[in-house]
Amino acid sequence: MGRFPVGRRLRVLDVGMGRGAQALRLARAGHQVTGVEQDPVMIAAVREELAGEPEGIRERMRIVEGDGRDTGVHFRPGSFDVVLCHGVLLQVEEPDALLAGLGRMLAPGGLLSLLVRNGDAPAMRAGLSGDWAGALEAFSTVSYGLKRLTSTLAGIGAPLHTWYGVRVFTDTAADDADLPGDLEALLAAEERAGRTDPYRGVAALLHLCGVRG
């Protein structure tokens, strides 16, 4: 959000919004949010949560039932300042068409935020937990890595602006890390590792931000 002037109300599209945690948080912050979701159970959960919000927040939130690959059916190109697509590419076999559609939704200077599985380190989690068979199997897994995603973002007109590693340490944290002091230290270490090489390169997930030229 630091890319935009303080106080500006942004037009946000959340593709695959799930239970709406991100969408609702942004609506509460004053932004105009449209959530796209195809799972009726998830949509029902969002509507139930939204029903308990003040009228002003309900008015800022729109829910569209549909597939994230069909954004061109529902919206005009350049309709949004921010497009979120978190966790969706994990379920799409060939995501290039989806990403191209999301890129078209961005207004000039708009931000595309992606959260994806880190295809550059698929064996890391299994190996750290001692699942050697799983680690060996993961080496043959084909998934999007940073290099390919960087190329894809450039190709859709939203070149990579910055990126972070997500779940560098938290996946293997001890159960007693929920104590207040331990949790604070864990989150501080996780945040630092997520923006520092070489640690971010072996995170479970990648958070990439592309900006429309």
Structural description of this entry:
It is a single chain. The protein is an alpha/beta fold. It contains nine helices and seven strands. It has helices spanning 21-28, 40-51, 55-59, 71-74, 96-105, 124-128, 132-138, 146-155, 180-193; strands spanning 11-15, 32-37, 61-65, 80-86, 106-117, 160-166, 205-211. It has a seven-stranded mixed beta sheet, sandwiched between helices. The model has no long low-confidence stretch (mean pLDDT 92).
Describe the structure concisely.
Helix content is 35%, strand content 23%. The chain is built from nine helices and seven strands.
Draw up the topology in text.
Layout: E1 11-15, H1 21-28, E2 32-37, H2 40-51, H3 55-59, E3 61-65, H4 71-74, E4 80-86, H5 96-105, E5 106-117, H6 124-128, H7 132-138, H8 146-155, E6 160-166, H9 180-193, E7 205-211
Parallel strand pairs: 1-2, 1-4, 2-3, 4-5
Antiparallel strand pairs: 5-7, 6-7
Shape: globular
Q: What's the end-to-end separation, in Å? A: 17 Å
Query: What class do helices, strands and sheet pairing give?
Result: alpha/beta
What is the N-to-C succession of helices and strands? EHEHHEHEHEHHHEHE
Q: Helix count?
A: 9
Rg: 18 Å
Percent of residues in beta strands? 15-25%
Number of strands: 7
Mean pLDDT over the residues: 92
Helix content class: 25-40%
Largest sheet report: 7 strands, mixed
Q: Identify low-pLDDT runs.
A: none
Query: Could you give the order of strands across the largest sheet?
Result: 3-2-1-4-5-7-6
Protein name: Methyltransferase domain-containing protein
GO molecular function, one term: methyltransferase activity
InterPro entries: Methyltransf_11 (IPR013216), SAM-dependent_MTases_sf (IPR029063)
Pfam families: Methyltransf_11 (PF08241)
